Amino acid sequence: MERFKQRDIWIVILIGIAIYALFIRMIGIDRFLILMSYVNKFLVLLVVLFNLLNLTAFTLTWRFLISAPVSSYKLFKFYMIGTFINNITPTLGVGGEPVKAILLGKETGTSQAGCFATVVSQRMLNMFPFMTIGGLGITLLFYKPGIVLKTWEILALLFSIGFAFGIFGLIVYFYIRKDKLSLFVHSSIRFFAPFIGLVKKGFNQEEYAEAMERSINSFHGGLAHIHHNRYGLAKATLFAFLGWIFDIMSIYSVFLSLGSTEYIHISVLIITYTVSMISSWLPFFLPAGLGIVDSIMALLFVYGGVPVETAIIATLLYRLLSYWSNTVLGGYFLLTYLRSNPAGI
Q1: Which residues in the chain show pLDDT less than 70?
Q2: What gap in Å lies between CA 344 and CA 329, rounded to an integer?
Q3: Could you list the residue range(s) of the whole structural domain that residue 306 is in?
């Protein structure tokens, strides 16, 4: 298991090195170093600040959905550990969510299924402002001077937003219809049972199905509790909006540090960010859409009128100060947790 974790980390590092090497080669190492020397180091700290505010806002979004007493700092650590796992495993960016629920359950002594309900609810709440802000970006795009969209560009935008709404709708459907969630889970168990039996000796499909049913009941019990916490939901939604705004502001701060804000229209900034984040859900085999997000972000900046060199530098800086710094911070918290808890997670 330990080797598996190390393998995942090394794969991510190697992919990251390859991406940066490829992007730097596109503009040349000498030109890259010259451009980096022009970056305003003080404004880079502003990028770091907005990234930290983004993480804090999302942690507080989760905090308002939890009834059990737990400090915000511990929740922040759990959130970052989940982020680390999301960023190194190819699981549509949700591999760390069960771990967050386990950590919260151990800390508060409450049901892990109920804790998982708070994790899922936090992700659902994050989807609503994300799509709202994405819709705002598309609206503002039509106010961009000289805008002329090609057919494929319109189709790409519609696909991205439609895909996000489809995922959100599916989650809400299972959120409301416990019977459909139960049917989906049992159907999945039946389908995967032969494959699980090959790698897990003594696998009992009926016992596993009964255990999953108990978890679903506990999960929906947790959802019901959250649903009745209207004040907490309102505050959580507000901080979810703030979280996305802080993240978008971190990208804008990257352009500030490059002295290139004249190249980026607010609509291009929002749409590029939205579509890039949605693209991270598509590749099942890449952790957190690594490589896909970077490429699409740089490409969309270029299509939005940003010079190629600036688009590449902006993308590399943003990903370095968000994805990579968050991964390192989450890895640090995971390491310290495992050292203080030898039994593991």
Answers
A1: 1-8, 90-95, 113, 142-154, 156-157, 160-161, 163-164, 167-168, 171-172, 174-176, 178, 181, 184-186, 188-229, 281-289, 343-345
A2: 19
A3: 2-340
Domain annotation covers residue 345: no
Assess contact for 327 and 12: CB atoms under 8 A: yes
Distance, CA of 189 to CA of 140 (rounded, Å): 45
List the structure tokens of 250: 């971190």
Q: How many domains is the chain partitioned into structurally?
A: 1
- Chain-centre distance of CA 76, in angstroms? 15
The token pair at 23 is 């992007």
Give residue-wise pLDDT tens across range 266-304.
888 888 888 888 777 665 556 666 778 888 889 888 888
Identify whether 81 is part of a domain. Answer: yes
Which residue from 274, 238, 247, 273 is spatially nearest to 49, judged by alpha carbons? 247
Two tokens, residue 209: 């199905």
Count of beta carbons in the 10 Å neighbourhood of residue 298: 24
Rounded Cα gap, residues 120 and 127, in angstroms: 11
96 found inside a domain: yes
Look at residue 284 and tell me if it is in a domain: yes
Its pTM stands at 0.79
The per-residue pLDDT for 234 is 83
Per-residue buried b or exposed e for 162-195, using 16+ beta carbons within 10 Å of the residue's own CB: eebeeebeeeeebbeebeebbeebeeeeeeebee
Q: Among the residues of the chain, which ranges form H helices?
A: 2-27, 29-37, 41-63, 72-88, 97-108, 112-141, 151-176, 178-199, 205-227, 230-258, 266-279, 292-303, 308-319, 325-340
